[in-house]
Specification:
Layout (H helix, E strand, L loop, with lengths): L5 H4 L3 H22 L1 H9 L21 H7 L14 E4 L9 E4 L1 H17 L7 E4 L8 H12 L2 E4 L5 H11 L3 E4 L1 H14 L9 E5 L5 H11 L2 E8 L4 E7 L6 E3 L4 E6 L12 E8 L10 E10 L11 E2 L10 E3 L2 E3 L1 H10 L5 E12 L2 E10 L1 H5 L2 H19 L4 E5 L14 E3 L4
Parallel strand pairs: 3-4, 3-5, 5-6, 6-7, 16-19, 17-18
Antiparallel strand pairs: 1-2, 7-8, 8-9, 9-13, 10-11, 11-12, 12-13, 14-15, 16-17
The chain binds 5'-O-[hydroxy(phenylacetyl)phosphoryl]adenosine (DLL).
The site of 5'-O-[hydroxy(phenylacetyl)phosphoryl]adenosine has 21 residues, from β7, β8 and β12.
Length: 434
């Protein structure tokens, strides 16, 4: 299958919807026939494939969630015999939520196509040198972007994560033009490049950053420091990995590969489907996958869908940056707080004074939730006098109060005292769960 199909990416919405309807009908029958676990879920609702005639019937189908994946682990949602599968990928499972996803060769091809689209939407061509420092192995970041980069014809550097000195050396020596990694690692690389004084040896023009929530302020920070355009990319292991959606040059929402995935937004509490433009939980149905074809999979990611035309010409629906996972949302003194809101406030404060390295620590004292935020100050700030540190802490506290409506204690900590991450950053420590 060719990797870039402008006729698909710019297909009128009515045609996309019609095609989705046809594929949905086929996929539901395929899953019903091949995945006893899902068949039982349909039967419990009194449904057979004959009840599904098109997109208008999607809402009737049962949801799948992480707990189904756990229950059916490892083979219970597999729709193909193992002899037809050629790969597995998995999430790290550090939070006890290990997911194992299976791929046929056809699934790998489609996944790599989606990643290729993301690279091309960021301006990538076969003239580019694509430096991939997402982790390789079971994590989908490295293998996904690696495959996409090959399809575009870029010279691909399969760096994987870690060894920042070597990353920067290769970037300089081989003239990498596209950088693929998590936004937190991109911020760390940017800081390290500036510290080493090698920015003028870097040829980067674009970065494709995803796998974790990051704010617009973080984007500006990385773009300014590296002199590149930073594009968001989204995906999850359950649906193949990165490339489920990606940003175009407009940098205003990520186009979902609607020829492969049907997106819905639901109310996370009631499961009711919400109209486009509403904020809610993103649900995906994979209509072309063979080995691990999830139907109405609840991502826990909270976002908004936008079907208004995009200036880039792509017609596929755009999703907003996820505000964080609904299970990442902190409830502090009864108020809903997403870590990205805190990041937004921190990075709006003068970039000269603090760095994008922070940690959110939630605790409980005398039956009341406490919120402490450690933020690393810049070397410049560190050498300034203590009064300006106190003033800045007060300024952040007041900005957080107006954004979140609750008080927090802010501590500006010395440079390089918060551990850097090479993959997804661990920003939250919730001691209430201990
Ligand atoms: O993180 C796949 C990926 C790799 C995406 C590389 C982009 C780049 P998982 O480890 O299964 O897969 O984690 C999926 O990460 O449900 C979101 O909560 C979060 N996530 C992924 N991309 C973004 C993003 C990969 N661009 C979970 N912005 C998802 C915010 C993201 N959150």
């Amino acid at each position: 299958m060719p990797m870039y199909q402008p006729e698909i990416e710019t297909m009128p919405q009515e045609q996309i919807r019609a095609r989705q309807g046809e594929l949905l009908v086929k996929q539901v029958r395929y899953v019903y026939d091949n995945v006893p676990y899902y068949r039982a879920k349909m039967e419990a609702k009194g449904l057979t494939p004959d009840d599904i005639h098109g997109l208008e019937d999607l809402h009737k189908l049962p949801f799948l969630s992480k707990s189904d994946l756990r229950e059916a682990y490892p083979y219970g949602l597999l729709a193909r015999p193992l002899k037809d599968c050629v790969r597995i990928q998995s999430t790290s499972g550090t939070t006890g939520r290990r997911v194992v996803a299976f791929y046929t060769q056809h699934d790998l091809d489609l996944w790599e196509d989606c990643c290729a689209r993301a690279i091309m939407a960021a301006g990538g061509t076969n003239e580019d040198v694509c430096h991939v420092c997402y982790g390789y192995g079971l994590f989908t970041g490295g293998p996904g972007l690696n495959g996409g980069s090959h399809k575009v014809g870029c010279l691909t550097l399969p760096m994987s994560s870690g060894n920042t000195d070597r990353q920067i050396q290769f970037m300089c020596d081989l003239g990498a033009t596209i950088l693929c990694c998590t936004p937190s690692y991109a911020a760390f690389l940017a800081e390290s490049i500036l510290e080493r004084g090698v920015k003028d040896q870097i040829k980067l023009k674009a970065g494709i950053f995803g796998a974790e929530a990051w704010s617009e302020e973080m984007r500006q920070d990385i773009q300014n420091k590296l002199g590149i355009k930073a594009y968001d990319i989204y995906g999850l292991t359950e649906l193949s990995g990165p490339g489920v959606s990606y940003e175009c040059s407009e940098q205003h929402g990520m186009h979902i590969c609607e020829d492969h995935f049907i997106a819905e937004i639901i109310d996370p509490d009631t499961g009711e489907v919400l109209p486009d433009g509403s904020k809610g939980e993103l649900v995906f149905t994979a209509i072309t996958k063979e080995a691990f074809p999830l139907i109405r999979y609840r991502t826990r990611d909270i976002c908004v869908l936008d079907r208004t035309p995009c200036a880039c010409g792509r017609t596929h629906v755009r999703m907003s940056k996820p505000m964080g996972r609904s299970d990442d949302m902190l409830i502090i003194r009864g108020v809903n707080v997403f870590p990205t809101q805190i990041e937004e406030v921190l990075l709006k404060v003068s970039g000269e004074s603090i760095t994008p390295n922070y940690q959110i620590i939630v605790g409980r004292e005398n039956n009341t939730d406490t919120l402490d935020i450690n933020v690393e100050m810049s070397e410049k700030m560190f050498s300034d006098d203590i009064r300006s540190v106190e003033n800045l802490e007060k300024e952040i506290v007041s900005k957080l109060r107006s954004m979140l409506g609750i008080g927090a204690k802010v501590h500006l900590v010395n440079p390089k005292t918060i551990a850097r991450s090479e993959g997804k950053a661990q920003r939250i420590i919730d001691n209430r769960k201990l």
